[in-house]
Each structure stands twice: as C-alpha cells, then as structure tokens.
Amino acid sequence: MDPINVLYISIEGNTRSFMERLMTYANQQHAIDNAHPEIKAREITEQSDFTDEREPFFASVPTYLDGGNGIDSGVKELMTNVLGEYIRYHNNARLCIGVIGSGNRNFNEQYCLTAKRYARQFNAPFIADYELRGTSNDIERIYKILIEQTQAQTN
C-alpha cells in the first residue's frame, strides 16, 4: 500500500510533534499489518524549494492570526502563508485531498480557522482537527480518517 502524504507547516513545534507521532504510529501499524499505510509527512518552510507534487496529499496547518477576530473584523494570517503558497504553486492544489487543522479551543470561532479557510480555498474537505500537540487518541483518530479519506479518493 502506498504511503499517505501529508504536507505541513509548524511554527512553534506543535504540528511537527504531532506529525512525528502520527508517522511513528502509522509505521508501527504498518509493521504489524502491511495493509495499514505508512505516513510520509513533509514540513514546508520558508527554505523549502517549491516543486510539483505528483501524488495526492493532505495539508496540516495550525491557526495563527495577527489582527481581527477572523470572523467579522477580518483576518490577517500570520506565519502559515508559505504552506498556502506552496499548495497554490502550479497545479499542487488539485492534489490536495483534505485539510487537518490545529489550534487552541480557547480561541472559540478562530479554532482551526486557517485550516477551514485552506479547505475552502483549495476545494478540499476539512477532515479533522486537534488541539495544541494533540493526544494519543487524536493520533489514532486522525490516522483512521486519513485512511478512510485516501480510500474514498481511490474508489
């Protein structure tokens, strides 16, 4: 089974930590049963070379806002723009098959706002969310969702 591809951006290390734990969990599941796919996650940073993606991928993005409440007084996104630029590069957006969001539930309506905006912008479903660094339950839940979404794309 082909690996599941995830592109992500991590500002304070929370998303990176989650992706590393998700890859470890997926690789353990794959070692037990080859029917479980591995996860190949790649961090996009300001130093990343933009390339043409060739395989479907999921995007994972935290929410950082600077100004506005993200709802009725506008929004100025902070620091995650390079991932959006990478997805917009050439035809990459057509291969984005889902968006995972993270954030802090204390921010109410702004929780996962960036991921929801990416989903609309790239015409991909908002498939899952987790708070801060996520829990082991989040790892298992999101791995299952990624498998289901991948299978739905191939059927």
Automatic annotation (TrEMBL):
InterPro entries reported for this sequence: Flavoprotein-like_sf, RNR_NrdI
Pfam families: Flavodoxin_NdrI (PF07972)
Listed name of the protein: NrdI family protein
Phylogenetic classification of the source organism: Bacteria, Bacillati, Bacillota, Bacilli, Lactobacillales
